[in-house]
Amino acid sequence: MTFIYPLSSKAYRLPDGPVAIQFSGGRTSGYMLWHILDAHEGQLPADAHVLFQNTGREMPETLAFVEECADRWNVPITWVEFDREDGFCVVGPGTNRPASTHGEPFEALRDLRGFLPNRVARFCTQELKVRPSKKWMLWAGYPRWTSAIGFRADEKSRVISRRAQKSKERWTCTFPLFEAGVTRRHVATWWAGQPFDLNLPTVSGKTPLGNCDGCFLKSEKARAFLARYYPDRARWWAEMEGRTGGSFHKDITWDQLIAFAEAQSDWVFDAECDALCDADFGGCHD
Ligand code: SF4
To answer: Is the pTM above the cut of 0.90?
Structure first.
C-alpha cells in the first residue's frame, strides 16, 4: 500500500479567540501540538493554552514526555489536576506543587463519589480531565473558548458523536487531525523520524500503557500486561477495589487478574497471541 503523507493543512490554524489545546500526553496529541505550533511559526497566540490533565495514574514516561515536548518545542504546557477543594490545581514543572504520581486525584474523586468509575459510570474522564481544564480556562478569564481535540481521521465515529452532542458547555470543539486527514499510521511514521519519543511500547499501533495505566476501558490484555510486568502499579487498582468494596469490571477483579497474570507464560502477552481479549472501548484519548 502506498503511504500518503497528509498534505499540509490549514486545519492546524487555530480559530480566533481563546483556545484550549488538549494534550493527553500521548503521541497523537503530541503530533497535533507540534503541527499547530508549526502552523503558527512556533509561537501560539497569546490566548491559546496547552493543557495536560494529570490523574496521578499516568506512567512516569508520560510525564517525562509532556515535559520534554514543552522544553524542546518551547511551548508552555499547563498541568492541571482535580482538587477536591478548588476543583483544580496547577502542578508540575515550573510550579511549587509536584504532580501526583500515586493516583491521589483519582483517589480523592473516589472518596467524593463513594464508588468506583466503570464502563457504564465513567465519571473519571469528566471530573479528572474535562472539568479541571474548564476550571482553569474560567480562572484564566475566558467565558467561552474553542477546545482543540486530537481525534484522528480514523476515529470518525468519535468526531461524529462529539459533533452530534448538543453541548451546553462553554466551548465548541475543533478536530485539527481529523480535518487534516491524519491517521494513526501518519502519527507513528512522524514520531519515528523525531529526535525523541514517548518512551512507552507501541503494540499494534496503540500505546497500552498510555493514559491511566490500569484504565478500565483498556482491553483485558492491556490490563493483564500491567499486572504481569508492573505488579506494583496493578496493585494500586486492586487496593482501590478492596477499600471501596466494588470492582472496575463486572467480570474480573484486579486481584483475580493479578493472580491470573502471575500464573501465565510470557507468550500470552505477545502481540500475536489472542489468548486474552484485546478489544478496548475507546475512552480517554491518547
Ligand atoms: S484514562 Fe480511563 S481511568 Fe483514566 S480518566 Fe480516562 S477513562 Fe478514567
So the answer is: yes
